Amino acid sequence: MEKDPSNPTTGTKRSWEGIPLHSNLSTLQSSTATSNMGESSPNMLSMFGSFCDELDSHHDRRERLIKISRDITALSKKIIFSLQRVRTSGTPIPASITKDTQPRLTQINELFLSAIPDITSLNGYRYLRQISPGIQEFIEALSFKHYLETQSLITLSEVKTHLPPQILITEEDYMMGLFDLTGELMRFAVTSLSAGSHTDSISEEGNGENEGEPRLPTLLPAQAGVVRDLREIRAEFESITIPRRGNMLRDYWKKSEVMQASVEKVERAAYGILVRGSERPKGWKPDLSAGVEMEIY
Amino acid sequence: MIDRAIFEDLQSKIDEEVAVRDELHEIVQTLARKGRSTQATLSRAHSTPAEQLNPVLEAATKEILAQKEEVSRLRSIADKHPFYKYNGVWSRELQNLISSIELCAWLGGLQEYKSSSSASFLTMEEVGRFLDIPVNLKEEDAFHLTLEEYLLALISMVEELARLAVNSVTLGDYERPTQIGNFIKDLFSGFQLLNLKNDILRKRSDGIKYSVKKVEDVVYDLSLRNLIPKGKGV
Q: Is the CB of residue B83 less than 8 Å from the CB of residue B142?
């Protein structure tokens, strides 16, 4: 019984002297195989035949959903990319950018509609893992757009209004989408910090210890808003209690770290603008991306 | 402006889910504990000659029936929630139970649940009838036994039978390895009909051929030495 396990059913059987035992074996196999065929094999084969159809349709469904999810992810990424060209928050998205995003949102909606037959009732949770990545990316795009327009977080029920009602949106997907949103807000904040100029007036926020010295530079209110919101999102996420066992929210811990890094990056960028920004000549733009990266890693 | 209510809602949803998981988990742990004792009983088959097997099978049946009660408890809770959301909590233990049931049936137990006395295993429907749970639901979102779980249980049973083939010979039973060989080759040819993708079912069913080989080696050793009883098996 010490034969090469890599090729078990076709391996050459040998006697203890090493003489191949081909003929001997094949007659043995065929005789044992045929002896029982008449009795149980047809049953077994027909049983497995029906299993086969079922597994095939399961795999087909699975693959269709993976493809839909990928397409949604790609479109959502393109929407996010366009939205990153926006420079201000709290105002409607400029028409030049909605021209890009609107058709993509329509396409995404069509993709979701095409997924519905495969995720009805029981199958909603069954194929959640396959379609989740697309949903999360879409929520990321949606929440980013929502933030740019309103400077607030989109709620789960608001997300649901942007999707066909048959699509299952879990709290988990929503949370993961919000985590990803912090990454986009980081990029948005860093670019707008480096592009926008700071003012010498004190913003409403103020800096507790600096209040006596009105000449110190502060961030523009909109910039300060992003920094403050990011910090708040981080604080809220960190206050959530999640058990570390089981399979609940398995991406939570990784995403949480990424989010913390993003928030820190923005805090660093804001600090850099405030402290060193005043020493720079008007119109000079700091190379934030590189500088910030270095300080974090 | 960040609305704190968003995160409070999330926290309460998470807490709800944790509570459901804890409740299911508690039942599954009981099921697992009983399952280990079923398996311990069944593993006595490896050291018990076939003709003295009845007390072992009776004891195993009793323990399987005790597990069945846990399955009913599980079902009553799980039925309140989306099936596939929590399926992972119990799937493994349910498979172990079904593999015990199948092994017990193959050894000659659970006769009254088989389609015929000559049948060597229970079909998925028969397992469902025995455990009093639906099987392979397609539309209704309720507790049931899935096809994958049933197939995975059969694979575990095959692995156990391959071990039994070796141990039967040690017990002086030269007939059983041939029966085992025929049965698992039959199952193997069934599994070969399936188009498996790169998933757990594929990984596990790839192992069947090693079991087949293990048993074939035993049968081969016996037949080479003319040890297989004439007129039986081969």
A: yes
- Check: complex ipTM more than 0.95: no
Q: Do A243 and B18 touch (CB under 8 A)?
A: yes
Mean pLDDT of A221-237: 87
| pLDDT value for A247 | 66
Average pLDDT (A145-171) is 93
pLDDT higher than 90, residue A196: no
User: Does the structure show a pLDDT above 80 at A246?
Assistant: no
As assigned by CATH, the class of the B147-234 domain is mainly alpha
Percent of chain A at pLDDT > 70 equals 69
Q: What are the C-alpha distances in Å from A39 to residues A236, B62, B110, B181?
A: 66, 30, 20, 15
Domain with A285, as residue range(s), is 170-205+217-297
Specify the DSSP class assigned to residue A163: S
Q: Which fold has domain B1-115+124-145?
A: Methane Monooxygenase Hydroxylase; Chain G, domain 1 (1.20.58)
Q: Which residues pair with B135 in a beta bridge?
A: B145
Interface of B with A in 48-67 (CB under 8 A): none
- Determine the pLDDT at residue B113: 85
Same domain for A92 and A134? yes
Residue A289 counted as domain residue: yes
Residues of chain A with C-beta less than 8 angstroms from the C-beta of B218:
1
Q: How many CB atoms lie within 10 A of CB B199?
A: 14
Q: Please report the residues numbered 76 through 115 in chain B whose beta carbons come closer than 8 angstroms to any beta carbon of chain A.
A: 82-85, 88-89
Specify whether the CB–CB gap between A39 and A46 falls below 8 A. no
Could you tell me the pTM of the whole model?
Answer: 0.81
In a domain, A194, yes or no: yes
Are A105 and A188 in the same domain? no
Residues of A in contact with B126 (CB under 8 A): none
